[in-house]
Structure formats: structure tokens, C-alpha cells
Amino acid sequence: MAAKGDLQIEVNRGVLVVRVGGSLDEQIGDRFRLEVDAKLEETGAVIVDLGRVCYVDSAGLGLLVATQLLAKRLDKALFLTDVPEVTREILQSSQLSRIFQVRDSVKIALGEVADKAGGETLSREGLGRHGGNET
Predict the structure, then answer these.
(1) Of 48, 72, 95, 116, whose Cβ has the fewest other Cβ atoms within 10 Å?
(2) pLDDT tens, 31-56?
(3) What DSSP string describes 28-77?
(4) At what angle do helices 58-73 and 26-40 cross, to 10 degrees?
(5) Reported pTM
């Protein structure tokens, strides 16, 4: 029997970080949806850390897909991090890997969000990515 799901949610540098442990399944789904949906609009992106997940079922996959669709509708990036090998294999065999941005760690995903946000700020100021030296 799979371990009961655990959910920890924090906002780090304007990014919603959701750490899931144990099972990603129907039992954790309601809490996940309630908390993530409520906070996603207020943040720049969402990172779902799966590093402590030992079991994912079809409801868990559906939850990830629904969160990805919501993030896309809100024009937010969604990253999956620390994805266990068995879950990566499921994502690849179901071709869901094509809709998710998978990164090795929360730190890498946070850096990518920060880099993107910095580039957008520079572009809005007319400086581009290279401090105005673009040719």
C-alpha cells in the first residue's frame, strides 16, 4: 500500500513551490487543487517538487495535467522537479512529458524563472538581454 500523501506549499521569490511526498493520488487531490488554484494567480510560476513521491496513480497524473492547463490559461510556467525515475518513465510512455517542463531540482527551476523574469524586465526597458548592445 502506498504511503499517505503529504503536501507542503510555500511561495519562494514570487514562485509557488509545491512539495509532494508519499502518494500523488486522489486522496491528496482536493487539498492540492484548493491550495494551488487559490495561490497560482498571485505568483509568477509554479514548481511541483516530486522528489519525495513514492507512488503516482492516474488521478495524480490527471491532477498534474489539470494544474498545467490552469497554469497555461493564466500564462504561468509550471515545472516538475526531482521527478522519480518511474514517474519519468510514465510521463514519457504516456507522452505527457511533452506538456511538462521537467527540471532536476527546485533550485534550477527557480533560477530559470528568475532568468526569464529578468529578461522580460530588460526587454520592457528596451535593453534586451545584452544590456542594449544587441546588433
Answers:
(1) 95
(2) 999 999 989 989 999 999 999 999 99
(3) HHHHHHHHHHHHHTTSSEEEEEEEEEEEE-HHHHHHHHHHHHHHHHTT-E
(4) 10
(5) 0.84
**And the C-alpha cell for 63?**
491532477
- List Cα–Cα distances, 32 to 17, 40, 71, 119, in angstroms: 12, 11, 14, 31
Cell of 58: 492516474
What is the three-class DSSP state of 95? coil
Q: Which residue has the cell 514517474?
A: 87
Domain 6-105: which CATH number of 3.30.470.20, 3.40.640.10, 3.30.110.170, 3.30.750.24: 3.30.750.24
Question: Letter for the amino acid at 67?
Answer: T
